[in-house]
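Hi Y.,

Following your request, here is the sequence exactly as I used it, all 167 residues.
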Amino acid sequence: MNKLLILLLLIGGGYYGYQHSGFAPKSEAVKTYQKFADHLARDQYQEAKQYATGPALLAVDSLSRPAPNYGSSPVGVYKSAMSKEAIQQQGRTLTREMAGDVGETSYTVESEQKTADGQTVTLVATQQIARFRAGQVSPNLSIAKHTVELKHDATGWRVHSFQEQRN
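Below is the corresponding structure, written out as tokens. Let me know if you'd prefer a different format.
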């Protein structure tokens, strides 16, 4: 009886480890999400747009939009520097300078739910980004929790909505 119980625990633990280790095959929706999130982490917005539609496409578009130019007067320069786009760009530049360039990204998909018609998938995933500065041996790690909705169309899976929560 004890041997059977141990065998069942080993099989259950092995299956759980297989599903959560990255060795299990990934769905096409998960692969699309990972490509999209990789491009966002590396500030490659034009590439990220290839995997986006709807609200996610608008969000990526706003990240890649240059800061508005309000002219060269003192008020115009101040308005340009303090615009939402300029502040976002400054934040991303500062992150790259302080934390370093993106070296690797890894993902843990916590849940994947498909609608009955199979055309929409909702993912909850954790993205871990390792950033390296020149001369640095160990990486700076940042972790983000993503809630993503993907929709399937004639061209394949596309990220429709994307929410990120950084720790």
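Residues 27-166 form a domain with the Nuclear Transport Factor 2; Chain: A, fold (CATH 3.10.450).

Thanks again,
Q.
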